[in-house]
Amino acid sequence: MDDPRESVSVIVPVYNDPNGILQTLGSVAHQCSSHVEILVVDNGSTDDTSKTLQKYTAKHDNVRLLVENDIQGSYAARNNGIKHAQGNILAFLDADETVNNGWLGNALEAVHRHGVDYLGCNVELTCPENTLVGRYNARTGFPVEQYLEEQNYAPTCALLVRRAVFEDVGPFDAR
Length: 175
Hints:
The structure is a single chain. With 175 residues, the protein is of the alpha/beta class. The chain has one domain: Spore Coat Polysaccharide Biosynthesis Protein SpsA, Chain A (Alpha-Beta Complex), CATH 3.90.550.10. It has a 6-stranded mixed β-sheet, with helices on both faces. The protein is globular, with a radius of gyration of 16 Å. The model has no long low-confidence stretch (mean pLDDT 85).
């Protein structure tokens, strides 16, 4: 999307996951035009995540590193990203997530086509089924359509929200 009126900020919280965040950034960074910024919010990592991100951001002009050390939790990190975001539309991803080619463009087109302020995207889990958690997640996954239809929400791991929504209702509950 190259419409300057529809600038986008992709916000990705991360904690102790240097490999996961690099995979996430690799899957989304090439989809971003000049109207898209990527804000990675390190939530007090104690491993090499911060160092890894400093190297990455030095090579990518549209990726900024923010730090949230006051409150531990992904929603506090997302709120920090919201506070610093320049975009009219805020897209949220998780640090251990990758997106398909065209994900951002397709999601933005759906926002416009349906005239919505909030869009939950389909999430497919690809975790190994040789662990208890892997087997559980493979069977339950993220039934985003069900969440939207029955409970009127979508998980923040693949979510687009117009900035105006946060201006109306405030940030996420950081607890």
